[in-house]
C-alpha cells in the first residue's frame, strides 16, 4: 500500500512538472507549477526536486524565473506556504545558476528564520550564497543543513556548488570530497558529483584520479545539455594542463646544468 501511494505521488509530481514544461515558453508556468504543488501538498523535498530542474530548463529555454517573478515572491508569504515556497525555490535556484550570490543573501536575510527551519533547501541556498563568496561563515550553515536534511541529493548539490564556487574557502577540496561522499553511491553514478570530485582532486594534485573522475562524468552525462558538457570538457583541460605544468616543473628541477 505504501509503495502504491509513493507511486501515485511520484506520478502527480511528474504531471506537475510536465505541465510546467509544456508552458515553459509562456508567462504562466511558475503559477501553474505553484498551483500544482499546492494541490499535491508537496513537501519541501519534493518542491526542491521539481523546482531545481524546472528552473534550469526555463533558464536554458530563455524564459528564466527571474523574468516572470520578482524579489517580492521570495519575501511575501501571503500566497500561502506551499506556493510561497515554490516561488522561493524557483527564484533562488535561478539566482544560484546565475552565480548571483549577493542577491540570494540579500533576499534570504528578509525571510524569517523559522521558515528556514522548515525548509532546509532554502537554507542550503543561503549557504551557497555565503560559500560562493568564499565566506567561511557559510561553513556553519552547511552543518545546520546537513543535520536538518541528511542525504537529500538536491540539497547536497547546492552545498557542493557553493563550496566549488568558493575558491578561497579553507579546506575546500577535502570538503568537496566529503560532500560528494554523502550522495547516493558516493556520487559515482552522478556526472555533476564526479565533476566536483575531479575539481577537488585537481586542487589536491591527484591528477590521475581527477582524470578518471572527469572521464566517467563525461560518459554518464546525458545528451542534450551542451553547457554542462562544455564545463566538463573545460575541467578535463584544466586537469591535463595542471598535470603537464607539474611534470615540466619537476623536469626543470631535475635537470643538471652541463
Protein model, in words:
The structure is a single chain. With 258 residues, this protein is an all-alpha fold. It has helices at residues 2-22, 29-39, 44-60, 65-68, 71-75, 81-97, 101-108, 113-117, 120-131, 138-148, 153-165, 172-181, 191-203, 207-220, 226-253. The chain is globular, with a radius of gyration of 20 Å. The mean pLDDT is 94. α11 packs parallel to α13 and α14 (207-220) runs antiparallel to α15 (226-253). Helix content is 73%, strand content 0%. It contains 15 helices and no strands.
Topology:
Elements lengths: L1 H21 L6 H11 L4 H17 L4 H4 L2 H5 L5 H17 L3 H8 L4 H5 L2 H12 L6 H11 L4 H13 L6 H10 L9 H13 L3 H14 L5 H28 L5
Rg computed from alpha carbons, rounded to a whole number of angstroms: 20 Å
- Percent of residues in helices: over 70%
Note the beta-strand portion. Answer: under 5%
Structural class: mainly alpha
SSE run = HHHHHHHHHHHHHHH
What is the number of helices? Answer: 15
Describe the global form. Answer: globular
The low-confidence runs, each spanning 5 or more residues with pLDDT under 50, are none
Average pLDDT: 94
List keywords for this structure.
258 residues; mainly alpha; 15 helices; 73% helix; globular
Outline:
By secondary structure, the protein is mainly alpha-helical. It is built from 15 helices and no strands.
Amino acid at each position: 500500500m505504501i509503495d502504491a501511494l509513493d507511486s501515485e505521488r511520484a506520478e502527480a509530481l511528474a504531471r506537475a512538472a510536465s505541465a510546467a514544461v509544456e508552458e515553459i515558453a509562456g508567462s504562466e508556468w511558475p503559477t501553474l507549477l505553484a498551483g500544482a504543488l499546492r494541490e499535491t501538498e508537496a513537501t519541501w523535498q519534493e518542491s526542491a526536486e521539481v523546482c531545481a530542474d524546472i528552473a534550469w530548463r526555463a533558464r536554458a529555454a530563455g524564459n528564466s524565473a527571474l523574468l516572470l517573478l520578482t524579489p517580492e515572491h521570495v519575501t511575501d508569504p501571503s500566497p500561502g506556504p506551499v506556493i510561497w515556497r515554490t516561488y522561493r525555490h524557483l527564484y533562488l535556484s535561478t539566482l544560484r545558476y546565475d552565480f548571483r550570490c549577493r542577491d540570494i543573501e540579500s533576499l534570504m536575510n528578509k525571510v524569517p528564520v523559522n521558515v528556514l527551519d522548515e525548509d532546509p533547501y532554502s537554507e542550503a541556498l543561503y549557504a551557497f550564497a555565503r560559500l560562493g563568496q568564499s565566506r567561511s561563515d557559510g561553513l556553519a550553515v552547511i552543518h545546520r543543513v546537513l543535520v536538518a536534511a541528511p542525504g537529500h541529493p538536491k540539497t547536497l548539490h547546492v552545498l557542493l556548488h557553493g563550496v566549488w564556487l568558493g575558491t578561497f574557502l579553507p579546506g575546500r577540496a577535502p570538503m568537496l570530497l566529503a560532500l560528494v561522499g554523502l550522495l547516493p553511491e558516493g556520487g559515482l553514478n552522478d556526472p555533476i558529483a564526479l565533476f566536483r570530485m575531479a575539481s577537488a582532486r585537481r586542487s589536491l594534485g591527484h591528477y590521475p584520479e581527477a582524470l578518471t573522475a572527469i572521464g566517467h562524468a563525461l560518459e554518464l552525462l546525458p545528451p542534450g545539455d551542451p553547457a554542462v558538457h562544455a564545463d566538463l570538457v573545460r575541467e578535463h583541460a584544466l586537469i591535463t594542463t595542471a598535470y603537464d605544468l607539474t611534470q615540466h616543473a619537476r623536469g626543470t628541477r631535475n635537470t643538471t646544468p652541463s
